[in-house]
Amino acid sequence: MPELRRDPITGEWVIIAGERAKRPKDFASHLPADEPEHDSTCPFCPGNEGMTPPEVLAFRHPGSERDSTGWWVRVVPNKYPALAVEGDLNKAGLGMYDWMNGVGAHEVIIESPDHDRQLAHLDARQIEDVLWAYRARYLDLKKDPRLKYILIFRNHGRVAGASLTHPHSQLVATPMVPGEVAAELAGAKRYEGYRDRCVYCDILRQETNEGSRLVGENGSFIAFEPYASKFPFETWLLPKRHCASFAAIAAEEQSDFAEVLADTLRRVDACLLDPPYNYMIHTAPCDSDDRQDFHWHLEIFPRLTIAAGFEMGTGIYINVTPPEMAAECLREASLGAAAPVEQEGVTLGDSDR
Amino acid sequence: MPELRRDPITGEWVIIAGERAKRPKDFASHLPADEPEHDSTCPFCPGNEGMTPPEVLAFRHPGSERDSTGWWVRVVPNKYPALAVEGDLNKAGLGMYDWMNGVGAHEVIIESPDHDRQLAHLDARQIEDVLWAYRARYLDLKKDPRLKYILIFRNHGRVAGASLTHPHSQLVATPMVPGEVAAELAGAKRYEGYRDRCVYCDILRQETNEGSRLVGENGSFIAFEPYASKFPFETWLLPKRHCASFAAIAAEEQSDFAEVLADTLRRVDACLLDPPYNYMIHTAPCDSDDRQDFHWHLEIFPRLTIAAGFEMGTGIYINVTPPEMAAECLREASLGAAAPVEQEGVTLGDSDR
After folding, report:
1. Do A180 and B154 touch (CB under 8 A)?
2. Collapsing DSSP states into helix, strand and coil, what is residue A50?
3. Is position A168 within any domain?
4. B266 has a pLDDT exceeding 70
5. Which whole-number Å values give the CA distances from A178 to A173, B4, B231, B281, B309, in the listed order?
6. Using the beta-carbon criterion (under 8 Å), do B315 and A101 form an inter-chain contact?
7. What digits encode the pLDDT tens for the residues B30-88?
8. What are phi and psi of A262, to 5 degrees?
9. Within 13 A of B166's CA, how many CA atoms are on the CB side?
C-alpha cells in the first residue's frame, strides 16, 4: 500500500510509492557530456568577459583588470534578465487584473574559470568563495528597498533548465515575497504558534536522533532526506544554529557549508551518475532577518521524474524512492578524491569579500 | 521591460517576458511518433483486455462481454495505482511527522480502441462519450465517504509524463483536499468575500468583452489564454453557466464541451506540432457541489519550457509567450478536417451511460 506523508512545514501531502521503489540504477543515467576545459564561444569562459554585461563582483588576482581575465569567481547581470533592475513598479489595475513592471535583479555567479569542472568537483576553498560571492551579492541587493526577496539557485543539466554548461549559479531578486516562500513562511509560523518551537529545529533534532534519513553531518550542518520528500533523492542541508537568514552565516559555518555541499553533491553524482538537479537557498525575506519561526537551509532536487497532470492539478507529488532508501544509497556512495583546481600563482585573499 | 501579472484567483504573480517573446516556431517541434493502429503488446488495445485489471465501466456494443473486445470507451483501475482503493487511512503521528495509508482510487479511461488516434482527432460523438465516462466514474467514486477530492487529467506525450502511448485519461481520488486545490478554493473564496461575485464569472465577462485572449467560443463555453498564464499557450475552457461541479454538467453542455475541447486541442496541435501537454479538470471537492465561489473548468498546459530552480523556489513562472500572442496564433491556426473514427456496425446507445 502506498503511504501518505505530510510535510510538517507546508502541510502538503506526498505519496511515497514504496512498493515499486526505484533504486538509482532504475533511473536513466545521465553521463556527463564531454565538455572542453575552455570554449571560445562560451560567454562565461576567461577571455570572453566582453560577451557579458559588466561584472558587479569578481574575486580577482592582484593587478588584474575589471572585465578581463584573472578572476576565479565572477558575478554579472543576466544578459536576458527575468526581471530588470531599472525602473519603478508602476502598479496598476486592468479591469479585474493586477499588473506591475517587472522590476528586480537577475545575476549570474560564474563559479570558476573552468568550463568543464562542476561545482561539486571544485576544491573546498573555491566552493567556499562561490558561497561568499552569494552572500556579498545578497547583502548588496538587500539595500535596495524595492526588493523584498532574494533567491539564490543553481540549475544543473539541460533537463533541470540549464541552457549554458559552464558552471554557474543564479540570483533573482523580486519586488514581492513569492507565493511559495509565503506558503513556507506561513507554515513555519503556524507550527511555531502552536508549539512555540522552530519547525526546522525540531526536524534537526528528530532526524539526528532517528538517523535513517541522514546523509551526512559536520560541525555546523546536517544533510538529510526529508520525511515527506517530494522527489527521489531530494536532499536538504540544514544549519545546526537557528538563524533565519543565509546572509548571517559566520565564517566557520561557511567552510562547513562548502564542505557539506560538496560532499552531498558528490554523493548525488556518484549514486545517480551526474543527474540534472536544481538547488535553492531558502532564506527569510529581506525585511525579516530575525524571525524566530524561520530557519534558512538549502534544498537539492534531482530531476529524475516528470511532474505530470496529477502533480500539477493537486500539488501532491508521487515519490518513487522512499527517503530512507535514498539516504542509505547516498551514505554508502563511494566517493573518488576530488581533483583540486589548478590555480597557479593565485593569492586567495579575503580582500574581495 | 518584463511585466508582472497577478493570477486573480490564487494571487500568484507570473513574469511575462514579452521582449524576447517566443512564437510557435521557436519551440522545439514535437512531430508525432509513427504509431501503429494496433499494438499487440499494448494493454489498452482491443484483444488485450486481460492485461489490465477488470474493467469498472465500458461503453460496449450490444452482446459483447465484459473484459473482451467490443468496447469503444473502457475504464480500468490503474495496474500500478498511486493510491490503493482498499483499506483504512489509519492516520498516525511519527514523532513530529504525520502519516496515513495511501487510500484512494486511480483509474485509466481508455479513450478509444485505436492505438494511434489522439483524442483531438476522434469524432465528436466519441469525445463526448469519453467525457460521459469521466462523469460516470466521478459520480460513482463520489459515493465513497473516504474520498474527498477527484481529479480527472490527461498526460499527452512522454515529456508530459505519459508512459503509454495508447490515448487515455486518468482519474485519481484522494482522501484529502489537495494543497493546490485548497489554495485555488481559498483564493476564489477571498475574491467572492470581497466583491460578492464569482471570480470565474468575472473572468468570463472580461475575457468575452476584451477578446484579445479569446481562442474560441460556443453556446456553453469559452476557450481563452488566462491573463496571468504560467505557461506558453496555457488555455482554459470555462463553462458559461456558473456551476461548482463538473459532474453537474447538462447533456447539451456536454456536447459543447466535447466540441470546444476538440477544437482547442486541434488548434494547439496545429500551432505547436503535437506538443506534449497536460490537462486537468478543476472541480469542487466531493462535499461542496453547491459552493457559490467556485466554478469548474479545464486547464490545458502545453509542456514547452522547463520549470527550473527559480520557479521551484518561488512559485513564480516565467512565461516567454504573452497570452495575447498565443491567443492570436491559436485563433489563426488552420485546422484540417477531422477524420471520423470508423465504427462499423456500432450502435452508439445511451444505455451504458
Report:
1. no
2. helix
3. yes
4. yes
5. 10, 12, 17, 26, 13
6. no
7. 666 678 899 999 999 999 999 999 999 999 999 999 999 999 999 999 998 999 998 88
8. -65, -45
9. 21
Grid coordinates of A229: 520528500
Identify the DSSP state of A12: -
Query: Cα separations (Å) of B305 from B6, B160, B224, B320, B330?
Result: 20, 11, 20, 9, 18
Q: Determine the average pLDDT of the residues in A37-66.
A: 97
Residue A223's alpha-carbon distances to A249, A299, B48, in angstroms, are: 17, 10, 47
Q: What's the CA angle centered on A231, arms A227 and A232, to 5 degrees? A: 90
* Shortest CA distance from A150: residue in chain B: B314
Of B98, B159, B206, the CB nearest to A95: B206
Give domain status of residue B343, yes or no: no
Grid cell at residue A27:
533511473
Q: Could you give the 3-state DSSP secondary structure of residue A321?
A: coil
B337 in any annotated domain: no
Torsion of CA A118, A122, A128, A129, to 10 degrees: -80
Identify the band that residue B117 occupies on the pLDDT scale cut at 50, 70 and 90: very high
Q: What range does the domain containing A306 cover?
A: 3-332
**Chain B CA closest to residue A182:** B314
Reported for B217-221, long-range contacts at CB under 8 A and 24+ positions apart, including other chains, are: B217/B260, B218/B256, B218/B259, B218/B260, B219/B252, B219/B256, B220/B252, B220/B253, B220/B256, B220/B257, B220/B260, B221/B253, B221/B256, B221/B257, B221/B260
Nearest chain A residue to B79 by CA: give it: A20
Cell of A287: 525585511
Convert the pLDDT of each residue in A204-251 to its tens digit.
Answer: 999 999 999 999 999 999 999 999 999 999 999 999 999 999 999 999
Give the C-alpha separation, B15 to A228, whole Å.
30
Tens digits of per-residue pLDDT, A286-338? 999 889 999 999 999 999 999 999 999 999 999 999 999 999 999 999 886 54
Backbone angles phi, psi at A108, to 5 degrees: -115, 130
Residue type present at position B253: E
Instruction: Give the total number of structural domains in chain A.
Output: 1
Could you identify the residue written with the cell 521503489? A21
Ramachandran area for residue A46 (φ above 0: left; ψ -120 to 50: alpha; else beta): beta
Average pLDDT, chain B: 91
**Whole-structure pTM value:** 0.92
CB neighbour list of residue B205: distance below 8 Å, 6 or more residues apart? none
The residues of B that are catalytic are: 168
Name the average pLDDT for chain A. Answer: 92
Mean pLDDT of A165-174: 97
Reported ipTM: 0.91
Residues β-bridged to residue A77:
A107
Residue A82 near residue A102 (C-beta atoms within 8 A) = yes
**CATH code for the domain in which residue A307 is found:** 3.30.428.10
Give the torsion sign (CA, B225, B228, B234, B235): negative
Cβ contact, residue pair B153, A313, below 8 Å:
yes
CA distances from B207 to A271, B54, B226 (A): 50, 44, 9
d(CA A275, CA A278): 10
Closest CA of chain A from B256, distance in Å: 23
Query: Does B53 lie at the interface with A, CB-CB under 8 angstroms?
Result: no
Which residue type does A228 have? A
Classify residue A38: in a domain, yes or no: yes
Say whether A169 sits in a helix, a strand or coil.
strand
Chain centroid to CA B255: 16
